[in-house]
Design the sequence.
């Protein structure tokens, strides 16, 4: 499927935030919006409806709380994904090299998996 260009109208505050995040993350605004749109559109219909409702009717404090909760849920999910990707490999490496006594417990293996994600 061919890509499509869309126009997005942002209020002054949201446009300023987009520029700030773009500079902070070293990403083009269009890349940030593409990622945001992809994540939002992949959510359930109910979640999208509630987010839109909060955006229109929620207070600033409520929107910040929602963003904080979503951030925590995303980070938790990513940690699980990283562990799922790396733990089997780490176990196999440990089996091949029994001299490696650093990764003994499940917690140590999980911590090493998360560390490797940040390399």
Sequence:
């Amino acid at each position: 499927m061919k890509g499509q260009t869309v126009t997005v109208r942002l209020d002054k505050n949201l446009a300023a935030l987009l520029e700030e995040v773009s500079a902070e993350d070293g990403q083009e605004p269009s890349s940030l919006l593409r990622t945001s749109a992809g994540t939002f559109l992949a959510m359930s219909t109910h979640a999208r409806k509630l987010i839109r409702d909060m955006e229109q009717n929620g207070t600033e404090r409520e929107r910040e709380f929602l963003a904080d909760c979503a951030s925590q849920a995303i980070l938790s999910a990513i940690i699980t994904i990283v562990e799922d990707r790396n733990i089997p490999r780490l176990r196999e490496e440990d089996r091949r090299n029994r001299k490696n006594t650093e990764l003994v417990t499940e917690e140590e293996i999980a911590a090493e998996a998360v560390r490797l994600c940040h390399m």
The chain has a mean pLDDT of 88. The radius of gyration is 20 Å.
